[in-house]
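Raw record, unedited: Apolipoprotein D
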Amino acid sequence: MTQYFRVFFFFLLFVLVYAQGLKLGKCPQPAVQANFDAARYLGKWYGIQKLPTTFQKGQCSTAVYTLKSPGVIGVLNSELRSTEGTATVKDPAEPAKLEVSFSKDSPPGPYWVLSTDYQGHTLVYSCREVGLFHRELAWIMSREPTLPEATVQELRSILSSVGVHVDKLVPTNQDETYCAPMSQ
């Protein structure tokens, strides 16, 4: 009976870890955007692809960034509902590594800009360690509701190079007709 319990326990642990997107080990430390310029990053971004989360469903998502004060960026994430937060530069020597917070009840999370051209695309990565595991989040975003496939593949390649399972990225529905009621 003990052998069956062990097998069942490890199977259950595997299923729970896989379902939550947890991976064994510490968070990777990918390179971030060199010479990140927050002022050029401000404005509206559309979600194109992301790793699944419990707080975003993948429908008509946008993020609007505004400058609140030096080193502090206002964040307004919108989908079927809106969530306001603040992103803060923790180390001025690495301005592309921000911490974002959406409520006083939850700890801030990393928000690292791995790549951006400021006018067309951005690639954001987040990772938090949970005991022996880590949980990754990633977003590919664009200034427009669509992004050329070649650019998407280039950004997926960056994620893949740091060990992110890009096959788990899901598209965001940005269909103009479907999303129109959110723009009103």
